[in-house]
What we know:
The structure is a homodimer. Chain A is α/β, with parallel strands linked by helices and about 375 residues long. Chain A has a domain at about 60-295: TIM Barrel. In chain A, about 45% of the residues lie in helices and about 10% in strands. Chain A has helices spanning about 25-30, 50-55, 60-65, 70-80, 95-100, 120-125, 135-150, 160-170, 180-185, 190-210, 230-245, 265-270, 285-290, 315-330, 350-360; strands at about 85-90, 105, 110-115, 155-160, 215-220, 255, 275, 300-305, 335-340. In chain A, the strands form 2 sheets. In chain A, strands 1-4-5-6-7-8-9 form a 7-stranded parallel beta sheet. In chain A, strands 2-3 form a two-stranded antiparallel ribbon. The first copy, chain A, is globular and about 55 Å long.
Amino acid sequence: xxxxxxxxxxxxxxxxxxxxxxxxxxxxxxxxxxxxxxxxxxxxxxxxxxxxxxxxxxxxxxxxxxxxxxxxxxxxxxxxxxxxxxxxxxxxxxxxxxxxxxxxxxxxxxxxxxxxxxxxxxxxxxxxxxxxxxxxxxxxxxxxxxxxxxxxxxxxxxxxxxxxxxxxxxxxxxxxxxxxxxxxxxxxxxxxxxxxxxxxxxxxxxxxxxxxxxxxxxxxxxxxxxxxxxxxxxxxxxxxxxxxxxxxxxxxxxxxxxxxxxxxxxxxxxxxxxxxxxxxxxxxxxxxxxxxxxxxxxxxxxxxxxxxxxxxxxxxxxxxxxxxxxxxxxxxxxxxxxxxxxxxxxxxxxxxxxxxxxxxxxx
Amino acid sequence: xxxxxxxxxxxxxxxxxxxxxxxxxxxxxxxxxxxxxxxxxxxxxxxxxxxxxxxxxxxxxxxxxxxxxxxxxxxxxxxxxxxxxxxxxxxxxxxxxxxxxxxxxxxxxxxxxxxxxxxxxxxxxxxxxxxxxxxxxxxxxxxxxxxxxxxxxxxxxxxxxxxxxxxxxxxxxxxxxxxxxxxxxxxxxxxxxxxxxxxxxxxxxxxxxxxxxxxxxxxxxxxxxxxxxxxxxxxxxxxxxxxxxxxxxxxxxxxxxxxxxxxxxxxxxxxxxxxxxxxxxxxxxxxxxxxxxxxxxxxxxxxxxxxxxxxxxxxxxxxxxxxxxxxxxxxxxxxxxxxxxxxxxxxxxxxxxxxxxxxxxxx
Lengths: 363, 363
């Protein structure tokens, strides 16, 4: 059911899930030793690529996310250029909110802006659910991708309930999350009602992607690092856990990521993640130490090159990549990635060079 | 030598340092048990107070920082209103840069903006030094304060070399510090030259405040939490250590603070701090555990109520204050504070209530 790209050759029904059992990214995600160290980059599909900027010329962000042909092409671009081991669905964490009918836009240079912040019981009650047909364009794009990606796994994604809630409550990006935290603590019942609805929304969005053939998922709780461990466990974990539990039946690897979450790693894992994403602030071997401190088995981890360092000289980057790969061997499986998204000004040639180097290293 | 407030009654010479040996803030900072649990708030002098907004009406930020009478009055306002145990000099971390002749302004809603970012050897060489007479207005303000504050200690302050460098290199506030980190790693010699000059600048600014009678100082490395421990120790610690060492002869407590520095606490202490500021992300008893992990004596700490929670209901705030005071007893001394600055929308009545509650608690 293509909604905007009627000329696309979209497979008409859900394909059987591809058998990519030997794909390095999926092997590492399951805690195995892959044939090579897998690497992809958060935000690899996007602003750093000239071919992306050309394709997006004049097309608003949220329009591009609902054009199956365009979102598929943008998703493939970094795979084609860099030879990364995973394609991450080109989308945005507010896509399911927008699709469900929330009045939200992505303002260039600012980020998501919500017309009416959600702060009262009435606001929460009025928050719509997501029906799969509202994101059928995304499903169509995923089907195109499954058809085009060959042996490269497709990572679906959604924003986690806390991060989605923070945009809705604050009305846009925030450095303080003051309204979100105040609501969470002062009216826990209302908070849990909101976060529960957002968990359902994220879950519905991920199931659409998985039904259409995505091979793994990443749940982005980008701003969870603003919370204490206590807050995370009480107010956030149950809702993110609902999302992860709700896709367990697909049997695909589930990656969980947030920035500045060194204090929250065990809780991110306890929410039901198979792979814990780590930003650059702590070494991966230290992350593994924290994740196994209570005697748990060694986890799979993803990370953690500081995206800001992609602007440094090559010898600096090379040393960092080698260090991170070495530290990652402490984990059951390691997916090489950045510690946050690719910055818009990044030279794409540097990303390609990082991929080539990672592929030379011992997995 | 008043520069703008000629009608002010400014003591004409440096007063002898006041004897405030029993002031709770100074006792706690030295690791003793004060008569009551001392409390002050970062950014207490500023935007949350209507009397501040009235006084600043039509006066640009950087002008107000060079008006002795105005900066003294703004510094006293929160002491008068809340009964806090310390006054923190009303100033800004870019004040010494501006005074030295750097083309920098504070743009409302944005923050410091630098006309020409500092990124080359020429830029660094051209960076001026600070001469004490360039901040004589601040010294005059400090002398007024020493005269007016009675038994309340005055906390002087300066921005730390890394945070100052980040503004100069990025050209303004940043979320990524990409140019700063790239320069630091790619041209360490240039980085150290810049950070060394900024250490001299911060040191000169603090010595002016101490010569005029400040009773303690806080070095703000607000954004150091964006760095790894390795980066901090190699690129930042030597320069902040130079600042702390350079004021050791005054014998006043030295507080060191940055946001999101849970991974850096030992390094912040090792730079020469007597008191380590902690944000809300880790409990104070956990901070003390980290600071004593290698057998070091228990430190004095400052913190760590999340400023965002001042917008929650009073029972939430009360429970947080009691928890933090209890956790702070693990330290040799505890100065109650927020985990970052007062947010502009904070109800000042809530701050007063927090002070009253803290003063009821066992120190």
